[in-house]
Specification:
Tetracycline Repressor, domain 2; about 0% strand; mainly alpha; about 290 residues; globular; single chain
């Protein structure tokens, strides 16, 4: 009976830890970095060459550890707001004590520095700056409009530039793909701000919806959607992206329906729907990378 209780307690804490570091996002990042390494960054190298490259796995491990540490420190600073916006998730995450979270944060960053050092001194410098960037964002910047959103998005895509630097592949096509992803994640960040408006108001976070209102936020989102569509159009007409072209063509009807829901409704339920639809768009985009070489 006692053993059964302890096992359940351990599993509950494990689930709590998985939630704190957003394990589902971490798994996605591993797959995304590996896929992009094989099909985009490595250019004409064989798949097997990429898969057995120890440095790629060390860069992925560095990314995983630093991003997990970032989620932990964000969780510490945003716990009060999250208790309002996502009460059940926050209660689950409180199974892990603040002290344990901070110890985990330090340990994961030490692992990040160790793994990156094994790649090169440049990789060590890159991830050292990345760790400082996440900490600076969490402590000082996350509560401010515009700069908080832009820095959050920049930090989200930064690990992919570690792969770019490793392969020294700075083609205009890769930068265009990165620009498209930047605006998709930026749209998602603003939808998240609309979704968590009540918590942000209560905790006096100076987000765009809090400071300028929902209508102005939707105008910004619409502008970013138009920008993303223009980037996709540029990719289609200027780069040879094989079957991936269908992904960039189909995002246009997707965003027409997206904007209809955005402007038609103001409820949290619909903001969550839009948020989840962007997650699906990003996942489909990741899998469409495979089509680029077909």
């Amino acid at each position: 009976m006692i053993v059964s209780f302890l096992n359940k307690r351990f599993l509950f804490k494990l689930l709590s830890l998985f939630s704190v570091v957003r394990g589902y996002n971490i798994l996605f990042i591993v797959f995304a970095q590996l896929t992009s390494s094989i099909f985009i960054f490595s250019e004409n190298q064989k798949y097997s060459t990429v898969l057995i490259d120890l440095n790629i796995w060390l860069i992925i491990l560095s990314s995983v550890c630093s991003i997990s540490a970032g989620y932990i420190i964000n969780n510490v600073y945003d716990s009060d707001k999250d208790l309002i916006n996502r009460p059940l998730k926050t209660i689950l995450e409180k199974e892990i004590s603040g002290r344990t979270k901070l110890n985990g944060y330090v340990f994961l960053n030490i692992l990040t520095l160790f793994f990156s050092f094994m790649v090169s001194l440049k990789a060590l410098l890159f991830f050292s700056l990345y760790i400082l960037g996440i900490l600076f964002y969490s402590i000082r910047i996350s509560r401010y409009p515009f700069i908080g959103n832009f820095l959050s998005v920049a930090l989200s895509i930064t690990p992919f530039f570690a792969i770019t630097l490793y392969y020294k592949n700075f083609s205009s096509e890769i930068l265009t793909h990165a620009s498209f992803l930047f605006f998709i994640i930026l749209i998602r960040e603003l939808i998240k701000d609309l979704e968590s408006l009540v918590g942000d108001l209560t905790m006096k976070y100076d987000t765009i919806p809090v400071k300028y209102g929902e209508k102005t936020t939707k105008i910004y989102i619409t502008f970013y959607i138009v920008t993303a569509c223009l980037i996709s159009f540029w990719l289609v007409i200027n780069h040879e992206i094989s079957l991936m072209i269908y992904y960039y063509i189909l995002i246009n009807p997707f965003f027409i329906f997206f904007m209809y829901i955005l402007w038609k409704f103001n409820s949290k339920k619909h903001y969550i729907l839009l948020h989840n639809s962007l997650k699906i768009l990003i996942i489909v985009g990741l899998f469409s990378i495979i089509l680029q070489n077909i």
